[in-house]
Amino acid sequence: MDLQTYVLLVAVIALAYSCLTRYIQQKMIDKNEVEAVQKESKALNEEYKKAAARNDKKEMDRIMQKQLELLPRINRMMLMQLKPMIVILVFFAGFMYIVNHLNPLVSDDIVVILTDDGNSCDEVSRDGIFSGCYEIKDGNPGKWTYTAVAFSGQNKIASNQTYFYYIREDDDKYIEIGTGLSMGISTDKKTYMPGETVKLYATAPPDVTSVNAVLDNGTWFYVDLPFRLPLFNVQRIYQPYWWFILMSFIFSIILSFILGRIKK
Q: Among 15, 88, 148, 261, which residue carries the largest CB count within 10 Å?
């Protein structure tokens, strides 16, 4: 599967998710009850404002009592709206798993085990700098990302990402923000040619037992939008999950508009 096919597939999955969430909301939420409670609450608020303007305390007390009597229905309405959100979040996690599982761009990722034992590419044993080497013989020209993941036993405690270039440089300098504990990573230079060896370094936090490096082989997910998103000031989407979320949001708006027009 190539990038374009995967981009389209994620959009189709987002459409299916949007339709499913709409169906769940319609089945689990009594819209008539929600609208009735909202209408009654709004009417009582308007009546209270008018009574307050007249300084009619008796009427204000009566309306307050009505509002207190309405509270149980408001609580049930809020609980009614909360239940589908829990179900939707469960489905969201499932759909995200599918999206990530189908990602064809990670199949050619290169994993390098970094060490701090003074052997191979590591210069000084136990100095806290984990090192590794990879000889580039082929791959896609352009930007390669280098992601380091540090573990303490089986627990992931830090990750960070940087990039280097293979054969040619380009203008893309995007990297993912590091997570967990602070960990500095670097390479010995920025641009490599075929046959050269990339030296990978990671200054690991305390208690790290192992560090893995992942090189993306110059294949990574991105979608160039036809316009810049005004709220986020971005025009290129870099991760499948952001593309999935964006398309789900757009499809939800479209579905709401279509269903609204049908009701009218």
A: 148
